[in-house]
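Forum: Protein Structure Q&A
Topic: Joint prediction for protein chains with partners

I've read a bunch of threads here and the consensus seems to be that you should model interacting components together rather than docking separate models afterwards. I'd like to see that in practice. Below is the full input, 231 residues plus whatever partners are listed. Could one of the regulars post the assembled result?
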Amino acid sequence: GAVVSQHPSRVICKSGTSVKIECRSLDFQATTMFWYRQFPKQSLMLMATSNEGSKATYEQGVEKDKFLINHASLTLSTLTVTSAHPEDSSFYICSASPAGGAQDTQYFGPGTRLTVL
Amino acid sequence: QQQVKQSPQSLIVQKGGISIINCAYENTAFDYFPWYQQFPGKGPALLIAIRPDVSEKKEGRFTISFNKSAKQFSLHIMDSQPGDSATYFCAASLIKAAGNKLTFGGGTRVLVKP
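Posted by a regular:
Agreed with the consensus. Here's the joint model:
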């Protein structure tokens, strides 16, 4: 089956530092990847849509300069949380849609728990 | 604006019982309706999905019922097991218009008691 990995699974950082989260599709190529944020006991909120080789599309209310997204290849997208603050502490999840496959299929990564002290 | 409303927020069912979760949507252009299962600390996993041209879809113990005129769809988990205890999310998307950008419901925490 299609597998999406995320690294790191957990990260703790100090306020004001930047953190990079990687999302990889391990056995398929993904033209589109999505980044979500999930606060405890809440639903997933889409942050941005990442397309390989082009700029990411951010949802309303998401600061593009704070959450930098790079989709450099068909198997890798990265999310960098710049100048992180405690309110950025959350569970970040990526998903990927296979290139050339059924457009409706979206595979999710295991998530990254970010804690900002 | 919450485009997909999910109920109930939580559900307790006895082992062997039926878990029923309901979702209602507003945007009639949605053309794909998946259900996801999420365990604590893990990413969501696709359970089952349906397109609006089908009224029901069954995969194992999981069944989606879809009512296009009412703009509602539901998940039925038959013969519920303790291992089904998880949070379930419905979602909807516009595949053709928006490249499968998912809008999630609020989630339902299901507890199956042995």
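The helical segments of chain B are 95-98.
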